[in-house]
Amino acid sequence: MWQEPELTERFVSVIARASTQLPSDVVEALRQARDQEDEGSLARKALDTMLRNVELAQGAWQPICQDTGTPLVWIHHPPGVSTRMLVRAFTEAVKKATAQQLLRPNAVDPLTEKNTGNGAAPGIPTVHCEEWDEEALEVRLLLKGGGCENVGAQYTLPNAELGADRNLEGVRRCVLDAVHRAQGQGCAPGILGVCFGGDRGSGFVESKRQLLRPLHDRNPIPVLDELEQRLLREANQLGIGPMGFGGKTTVLGVKIGYLGRLPASYFVSVSYMCWANRRAGARISPQGDITWLD
Ligand code: SF4
């Protein structure tokens, strides 16, 4: 079974991959977006710059963006593995990755207003551990940039301003409003993770977990799949475009989940992820071998 120092090293590899290698589905979506924008347009130039940046980062194993984001990680583990050990190992991995410049020192203590210098602080990284019946560990990491986090939004339904009731049409109106309000800030084209239901905290966590899904992943619930495809089309008809320059691509994907809610509450939580959708998934065998996941 895993020892803490070896596991820390595996986690550093997962962080390195997330920070420097944009997932192939996101790269492909950026290419398709670039090719459909008009020749010479600012939208096309912006997407071209993003793609060049991705290539340079990939070749040199350098961070894709100067803001390497907040590390959010979900770990599935077999019975008997200490979750305290997993949290320690991942936190240590963040510190090592920061020392190796795979991550920027990105954690500020809001009481002292001092950067901790090592990438870790209370709540950073955020590690979610869940037991499962398999022998391997599964690690799913998202590096969530600050600019795009700033344009995330949470709504309570009903919402008179949007004419949004407590139903999927209401959810649709909230998501489009969030994209409209962002106006390309948060480094569009973005990917939207959405959760309806839950409470204010759990709703946002689930909306971020949705961002782990590859862009080609289709929602197994037909009515949500339909809503995801519709919102993708409609968001791209808003004309906001890459970085707000106008154009055909405002959003690369929409992923929707839900949680149970109290009778009194109906939250819609929208997490906006920038084009630098840095996610990495890995299975780590009991012998320490890594298999990369989509
Ligand atoms: S929002 Fe994303 S792409 Fe923009 S600066 Fe932040 S991490 Fe980088």
Description:
It is a single chain. This protein has 8 helices and 11 strands. With 294 residues, it is of the alpha+beta class. A 5-stranded mixed β-sheet has the order 4-1-5-10-11. 38% of the residues lie in helices and 21% in strands. The chain has 2 domains: 4-21 and 63-145 and 278-293, 60s Ribosomal Protein L30, Chain: A; 147-273, no CATH class. The longest helix is centred in the N-terminal third of the chain and has 19 residues, at 42-60. Bound molecules: iron/sulfur cluster. Residues 65, 67, 69, 145-148, 186-187, 274, 276 line the site of iron/sulfur cluster.
Can you tag this structure with a few keywords?
single chain; 294 residues; alpha+beta; 60s Ribosomal Protein L30, Chain: A; 2 domains; 5-stranded mixed β-sheet; 4-stranded mixed β-sheet; 8 helices; 38% helix; globular; binds iron/sulfur cluster
Beta strands, count: 11
- Quick check: average pLDDT? 97
Order the strands across the largest sheet as they lie in space.
Answer: 4-1-5-10-11
User: Portion of residues in helices?
Assistant: 25-40%
Question: Structural class, from helix and strand content?
Answer: alpha+beta
Count of discrete structural domains: 2
Strand content: 15-25%
Number of helices: 8
Biggest sheet layout: 5 strands, mixed
The small molecules bound here are:
iron/sulfur cluster
Query: Distance between termini?
Result: 25 Å
Low-confidence stretches: none
| Radius of gyration, whole Å | 19 Å
Q: Could you say which overall geometry the principal axes of the C-alpha atoms support?
A: globular
- H and E order: HHHEHEEEEHEHEHHEEEE
